[in-house]
Amino acid sequence: MRDPAELDLRTLGVVLEKNGEGRVDGGRRGRTQSSGDPGGDAGQPVGAARRRDIPAGTFIMTGGVTEAIAVQAGDHVMARFQDLGSVSMRFV
């Protein structure tokens, strides 16, 4: 366990693996404009909707550390977080 006040989520290193292969290196080296700040403003898409329509089925990330990746049944995804550990999931 870590005190969230001790973490700088803007620079947290993250490696995302899909089926054992590295897919995305987020955090310090891999953050993209689309991934933004993981503590970002979830209200931003709402503000954008006032200016234009958001199509049905649009995937909105409220500040992901990595970009979104497509998964299918049988895929195994693991995220390794610098100094925090890892989390994994298998899609059925």
Describe the structure.
It is a single chain. With 92 residues, this protein is mainly β. The protein contains 1 helix and 4 strands. It has a 4-stranded antiparallel β-sheet, with no helix packed on it. The protein is flat. The two termini are 29 Å apart. Mean pLDDT is 76; it is low at 29-39.
Keywords:
92 residues; mainly beta; four-stranded antiparallel sheet
Q: Major sheet: order of its strands?
A: 2-1-3-4
The helix fraction, in percent, is under 10%
Tally of extended strands? 4
**Most strands sheet:** 4 strands, antiparallel
Distance between the termini: 29 Å
The class by helix and strand makeup works out as mainly beta
Task: Please give a quick description of this structure.
The chain has one helix at 44-51; strands at 14-18, 21-26, 76-81, 85-90. The chain has 92 residues and is mainly β.
Helix-strand blueprint:
Elements: E1 14-18, E2 21-26, H1 44-51, E3 76-81, E4 85-90
Antiparallel strand pairs: 1-2, 1-3, 3-4
